[in-house]
Amino acid sequence: MKAICATDLSAASEATIESETCLECLERIGVEEIHLVTVIPSNVHAGMPGMHFEERREQALERYRRVVEDAGFDVETHVVRGTPHRRINGIAEAVGASLTVVGSRGKSPLENRVIGSTARNLARTTVVPLLVNRIEREADEPDVVREHLFQRVLYATDFSENAERAFEAFSYLRHATQEATLVHVETPTDPGLPEDDDPEARLTELATRLEDWGIETRTEVRRGDPADEILAAEAEYEPTTTLVGSRGHSRLRRLLLGSVSEDIVARADGNVMLIPPNRSA
User: Fold this and answer.
1) Ordered domains of the chain (ranges, CATH)
2) pLDDT tens digit string along 39-59?
3) Any idea what the Cα angle at residue 194 is, between residues 188 and 198, rounded to 5°?
4) Which of 7, 126, 143, 186 could form a disulfide with 130 if both were Cys (CB 3.0 to 4.6 A apart)?
């Protein structure tokens, strides 16, 4: 299993790469090869101050390479130019990655937002599962907010095809997961299930599958705004990662695209893992 670790070489990105616990969690879910990627924006030209950006970034990535190699991974480095999220997605496809990891600072006191433009654009466009690793915001030497990436997982589902695809991520996450909370949010403005369907029964069926893997599981049906209720569940149960599909049921076909999943990525306290639809979907 291959993973992309995207970095802008900031202190926040460094926290993700140099966290031994995070690297240990990636190893547990089957990651063997890590591709370190940094993108020089296309509007930074060679004639500008800092014209040796490629060389400086290659040197920085070599330091990261040694850290990751010492943790037991095979490592490749990529210094490229272009639009960051497009180049990151392109490399993920080219190398056959199964996961992209990007670090993100914590909540902004001004905008109640946590993600920069690259992480936001990746959340909208990622072609492989995306893990947004939450980093401390107000710290000179920031650390990851929750070290054990997949120890406690909050899985949010509307029972759409993409939500089911997100649930299948437990097939490899289970090697690092001890506890799971399964949540469905009923909303009268955009119902996703037939009237005669029983969401509690469907959650119980999913819980049984996880419990067969030795994962302690709880289920909960909530009512209200999907993003608000999922975030309320996160505040209550304090998972290390919230797992969602990036598209779900909606009259506009974007209940979990932008209006919910992007909001969760923006406002969650902990890590968020987004599972995109199949490319053919």
Assistant:
1) 2-135 (3.40.50.620), 152-275 (3.40.50.620)
2) 887 765 555 555 556 677 778
3) 90
4) 126
